[in-house]
Q: What sequence folds into this?
């Protein structure tokens, strides 16, 4: 049996980075609950959003993954086809090995100067 962390990492590789929604039924509950204001609830809401999102050719470079009980937080740099960069925290609640709920926080970072030597990641 896969851990919740393994499920999320696999989801990002197969769906997000390969731009492939064909396996979404293996990862996401139909009644997926969404807290991102740009995306409607449910698997159908995710599909509608993601199809538009794919036009920007996103790629997730995963930097950290933290899992506890039914929650997994993934921190990554999302680079788009036009060079724009965003740092993202996605938090998922899994239920029976499937994505059941999602929260996120994003920040555009391309062209942003750091006031410290630590960088964004």
A:
């Amino acid at each position: 049996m896969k851990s919740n962390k393994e499920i999320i990492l696999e989801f990002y590789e197969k769906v997000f980075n390969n731009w492939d929604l064909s396996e979404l039924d293996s990862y996401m509950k139909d009644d997926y609950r969404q807290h991102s204001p740009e995306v409607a609830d449910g698997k159908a809401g995710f599909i509608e959003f993601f199809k538009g999102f794919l036009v920007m050719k996103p790629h997730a470079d995963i930097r950290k993954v933290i899992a506890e009980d039914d929650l997994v937080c993934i921190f990554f740099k999302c680079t788009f086809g036009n060079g724009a960069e965003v740092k993202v925290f996605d938090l998922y609640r899994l239920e029976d090995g499937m994505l059941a709920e999602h929260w996120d926080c994003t920040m555009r970072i391309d062209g942003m100067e750091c006031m410290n030597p630590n960088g964004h990641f």
Summary: The first strand starts at residue 28 and ends at 34. The chain has two helices and five strands.
